[in-house]
Specification:
The chain is mainly α and 280 residues long. 69% of the residues lie in helices and 8% in strands. The two termini are 14 Å apart.
Length: 280
Amino acid sequence: MKVAPIVVAAAAVGCQILYPLVSGSTRDVVTVAVVALLALASILHAALNRGIVWATILVVVTAGTGFASELVGTATGIPFGEYFYAQNRLGPSLFEVPVVVPLAWTAGFYPIWCAVTFVVRRLDTTQVRATALRIVAVAVGMVGWDLYLDPQMVTDGQWTWTAGSAGLPGVPSIPLTNYLGWLVVATLMAAVMESLDRAVGRPQPSDDAVPIGLFLWTWLGSALAHAVFLDGPELRYSAVYGFVVMGLVGIPLVWIARRDRPLGAGPRAAVDRSGTDTPR
C-alpha cells in the first residue's frame, strides 16, 4: 500500500473531525481543506494504483463535468434548481462558482466508484449486467453522498436555493429537483468513466483500502455528525437520508467484505469471467 494517499486521507479525516469544533472564517478554511485533501487523496491513490492516465481521466471527467454542471446550474437552474454560492468564503470563484467545488465531485466520486467496484467484481453476473450495475450504483451512491453534503453546506450558508420547490420531509430548503439533477450528472460521469476505464485497460489494483475506508468514513461518520455533532434541524433528517441511500452501496460492501476477507488484505488470485487469473 502506498503511503502518500494514507497520509493525505488521514489529514482529511482530521480536518473533518475539526469541522464541528470551529466556526466563521476558520470553518470556511477547514471546509476548503477537507475538499482539497479528499480530492488529493483520491487523485494520488488513482495515479499510484491505476496509472497517471486513468487519474487524469478521473479529474477531467469528474471535476470537468461537475464544473460544467455547476456553471449551467447557477446560470439556468438546470439541473439542480435555482441556487447561488456565497462569495469569498470558499476561496476564489470562476463565474460565481468557487474553484474548489469541482474538486468536491472528484473527492466524492472516487471512493464511491471504488466501493461499488469492490462489490460488483465479486458478484456472479455477466459483464453487461456488471457494467450497468456499476453505473447505477455509483450514481445512487453519489446521490446518497449529496444527501449529506447539501444540507450541511446549506445550513452553513455556503450555498442557497432560491426557488420554493418541494423538498424532502424535514429538509425543505433543498428542492427535490436537486437530487434528480445529481442522479443525472452522476450517471453521466459513471457511464463515461466506465467507458474510458475499459478503453485505458489498466489492471485493477489489488488494494483499494484507502478509498473504501474514505467511503465508509463518509457514510457512517457523516450520519453520526449530522445526528449528534452539527447544529441544524435539517441535519437530523439528512443523517437518516444519507445513511439509507449511501447504505445501498455500504451494506453490500460490508457484507461482502466480511464474507470474503478483511479490507486491506493482500492480493489473492481469483478467476475472472474470462477464465484468467487476476488479482481482485
